[in-house]
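Example 3.2
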Amino acid sequence: MGGTSSTRRVTVEMEDEDGNGVVKISESMARRLAGEGDSSPREPRKAQHVSQPALPSATAPKMVPPMGYPVPSGISQQEHEEEIRRIESYYKERQHALEQRNVEQYSLTKEEFENALKQVHAKFVKQPKTPICGDMEERVMKCYEANRGQTLLCSQEAKAFVQCVDHTRGVTKIIEQNLLVLSCST
């Protein structure tokens, strides 16, 4: 807080048995760390526990301030900028790889969705069918229109239409029974 800076070096050693990262400091040190200064005369030291994170390990990533921030002591400006460029390059490559993976996953998911959609359409969407015995039905309708009030004149066409429908129902029933037998045997 004064015009001079302190050149005193302090080393903190972890002497806890449990290694929980607790460092004991005095009240005046806590006030100085909080930026309140040390206006009172030296009082007897009362230790208090201040929880701090454990010291960084060798595997922890090195914290590098972004450009425009002061260069940490011990390295030159050029080394600092090179480190920043290296880190930026690493993250740009990583971002590009993640984007590529996202595109691949999107296309795979899109293909899977399209295949599922085709399966649903094949199973559930009704395909337009031609009417059963449609040509005979048409003959019966034309006969009825031509002979209004005299429907007995169209009995041969109507009988042929009914026989066609019955035959188709019988064939369809046989096919359904065969499919049921085949599906049960597999």
